[in-house]
Amino acid sequence: MAPKDEIQLFLQDFKIKLDVWGLLFQNRLNKKNFRTMTDLEINVPDVKKELKNLEVSNYVEGPLVDKLYNGSPMWVFGRVVLKHEIYIKITMGRPNDKVICISFHFPDHKMSYCYK
User: What pLDDT is recorded for position 28?
Assistant: First the structure.
């Protein structure tokens, strides 16, 4: 479990990079993301808005080791979107490139929020 100040710093940096470089959304690689977005009738700009609204209270776990996206640590959050809990896994991605949303889907298991 990360301390609150580390989570806050990550979210601050993530949101700045999201605004500057944009979002790479793993919709094609993760079919759960596509199904969830279809079920909720939302699109990638809606996902971006939800990511910008993440707070420390949404933290579930991380930083986690990531070997898929150039070693940038992964962070897991949860958020209620249109009355449905959503599992969110994000990473800062590569330097000077877009942030990455790996997961944005209905959770496969009960999520525990460390700071709620």
Answer: 61
> Which residue in the block uniquely carries the two structure tokens 């996902």?
47
∠ CA 22-63-10, rounded to 5°:
45
Distance CA 90, CA 33 (A): 13
Give residue 31's pLDDT.
Answer: 87
Cα–Cα distance, 13 to 9 (Å, whole number): 6
Q: Which CATH number fits domain 4-105: 1.10.8.60, 3.50.30.20, 3.30.2310.40, 3.40.50.410?
A: 3.30.2310.40
Mean pLDDT by 10 residues, the chain (116 residues): 96 97 80 93 95 98 82 93 97 92 94 92
The three-state secondary structure class of 63 is strand
